[in-house]
């Protein structure tokens, strides 16, 4: 793309005459662009961030995911210079920015509340930063037209924010954040104020746009579905710490802690004891583990974790490994599938299983009925019971 403006990485507020988009390829993600080193943030005696270290690669889309109060927004604000860390360092594009004010850092930011100027038109909102650094009217107009076309609002430039829907206002905020072609795009829960259908639609648009531009992006969210569908990597945070960093598949399929296992998706936590030959016992039922989980066995008591969708019924009989009989205590219809509450053992220990509508029909699964299930070895995760 040409005819616009480029904001040079590492040189805040300097304008050149060309603007280019890059494709987000694997080769372009090899270079570390953002480095956070041993960052701590104190509010009085409260530690909001505790010795955080993190690398973000060039062109990568990273989500900070966690519950309210976990420190994810505080970390984003430290990166932006909006709330400078108490200890630690931040590097962007090879340059230390730890103590720089926000105005001297190379980023664009989109807030949950849009933060648009209500008295300015869409055109003027998007071009605000360019005007402030003395860009000519012709270049500003060309860049605004380019960006509004990029976010699908090419015919909305003369309107005011109040005349737009929430989704359209967020697109304007995104266009404004990209106006100076920042090296880093920061998104602070940008979709949480939108209704569900608009949120789903816009997250796909934002991800596609990020891939087209290749801009390094960090997004804060408490919505696990957003993180799983949008991120190249997810940083799961809890109580000012990083619990796990990984791809969506790694976070969901191989959680590093009980917190991650419970926060991302639905997980059954079953009390078990260590048996013979690196097996575990669920009551009287013997379960075999894969080699990676066997290595985690430490002590006599453990938590055996399995996701509801991993519980098998089809093709399961008395000879199937890790299988046992359960009783259907409750069957909840959830549209495309049913969530069954199953009980087993003398104490009627509960676990949840997700069954397709076809399986429920074909197997005649019903409340009060019996069903034999199997817990595949590769689907069982082991954590210390302590």
The end-to-end distance, rounded to whole angstroms, is: 56 Å
Q: Main sheet, how many strands, which sense, barrel?
A: 6 strands, mixed
What does the average pLDDT come to?
91
The strands making up the biggest β-sheet line up spatially as 8-9-10-5-11-12
**Which strand-content bin applies to the residues?**
25-35%
Count of individual beta strands: 21
Which ranges are low-confidence, i.e. pLDDT below 50, for 5 or more consecutive residues?
Answer: 1-29
Helix amount: 10-25%
Summing up helix and strand content along with how strands pair, one would put the structural category as alpha+beta
Large-scale geometry: elongated
Number of helices: 11
Q: What does the radius of gyration come to? A: 25 Å
Description:
- The chain is of the alpha+beta class and 386 residues long.
- It has helices at 72-80, 122-126, 128-132, 137-150, 166-178, 196-213, 224-230, 248-253, 258-263, 291-294, 357-363, and strands spanning 6-7, 15-16, 32-43, 46-57, 61-65, 87-92, 95-96, 107-110, 184-188, 216-221, 233-238, 241-246, 268-274, 280-282, 285-287, 301-306, 323-333, 337-344, 349-356, 370-374, 381-384.
- The strands form 5 sheets. A 6-stranded mixed β-sheet has the order 8-9-10-5-11-12, with helices on both faces.
- The longest helix has 18 residues, at 196-213.
- The radius of gyration is 25 Å and the shape is elongated.
- Mean pLDDT is 91; it is low at 1-29.
């Amino acid at each position: 793309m040409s005819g616009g403006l480029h904001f040079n990485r590492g040189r805040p507020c300097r304008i050149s005459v060309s603007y280019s988009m890059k494709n987000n390829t694997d080769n372009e993600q090899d270079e570390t662009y953002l480095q956070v080193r041993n960052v701590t943030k104190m509010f009085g005696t409260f530690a909001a961030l505790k010795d955080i270290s993190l690398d973000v690669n060039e062109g990568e889309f990273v989500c900070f995911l966690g519950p309210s109060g976990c420190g994810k927004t505080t970390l984003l604000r430290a990166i932006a210079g909006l709330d400078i860390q108490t200890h630690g360092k931040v590097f962007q594009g090879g340059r230390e920015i730890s103590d720089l004010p926000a105005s001297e850092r190379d980023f664009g930011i989109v807030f949950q509340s849009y933060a648009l100027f209500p008295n300015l038109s869409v055109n003027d909102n998007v071009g605000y930063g360019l005007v402030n650094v003395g860009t000519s009217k012709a270049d500003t107009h060309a860049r605004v037209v380019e960006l509004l076309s990029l976010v699908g609002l090419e015919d909305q430039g003369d309107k005011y924010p109040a005349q737009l829907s929430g989704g359209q206002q967020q697109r304007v905020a995104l266009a404004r954040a990209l106006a100076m072609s920042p090296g880093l795009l920061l998104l602070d829960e940008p979709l949480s104020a939108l209704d569900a259908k608009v949120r789903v639609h816009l997250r796909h648009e934002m991800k596609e746009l990020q891939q087209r531009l290749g801009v390094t992006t960090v997004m804060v969210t408490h919505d696990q579905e957003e993180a799983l569908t949008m991120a190249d990597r997810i940083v799961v945070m809890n109580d000012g710490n990083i619990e796990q960093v990984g791809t969506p598949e790694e976070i969901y399929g191989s959680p590093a802690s009980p917190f991650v296992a419970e926060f991302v998706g639905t997980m059954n936590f079953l009390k078990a004891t260590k048996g013979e030959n690196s097996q575990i016992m669920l009551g009287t039922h013997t379960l075999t583990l894969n080699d990676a989980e066997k290595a985690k066995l430490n002590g006599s008591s453990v938590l055996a974790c399995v996701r509801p969708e991993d519980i098998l019924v089809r093709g399961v009989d008395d000879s199937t490994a890790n299988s046992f009989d359960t009783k259907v205590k409750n069957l909840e219809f959830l549209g495309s599938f049913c969530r069954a509450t199953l009980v087993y053992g003398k104490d009627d220990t509960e676990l949840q299983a997700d069954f397709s509508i076809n399986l429920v029909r074909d197997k005649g699964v019903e409340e009060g009925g019996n069903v034999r299930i199997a817990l595949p070895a590769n689907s069982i995760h082991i954590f210390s019971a302590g």
